Amino acid sequence: MEAATEVIPKVKRKAKQKWMTEEILNLMEERRCAKGNKEKYEQIHKKVQEKCNMSKENWINEKCKEIEPQRKHAPQTMYRNIEEITGKRTFLSTGCIKAMNGDIIIDKEKILERWAEY
User: Fold this and answer.
1) Do 100 and 78 belong to one domain?
2) What is the pTM of this model?
3) Which pLDDT score is estimated for 66?
């Protein structure tokens, strides 16, 4: 085991969220090391939660400040930034259409036939 730790370098953890700072990552590493001491772990965990909440709120506020002027002049960029904040993507195609009588068609061949009718 010692040989492996000497030869293989330790991989530095990366932020999973865009709003995570180096300070948060260091606190998370410190919290991970303090798993044996419950009081210290809970104290560090509380700090991590506070820093995460504050950092995320600041990041969202900055993004909103970027989005506001884009409303009139760059709507495509605005929507891209909104998707980045919300984490939701809009899909253009649902894979189904309505027939002439109002029934929903899901089968690909029938959809193609319906488009040919259209």
Assistant:
1) no
2) 0.59
3) 86
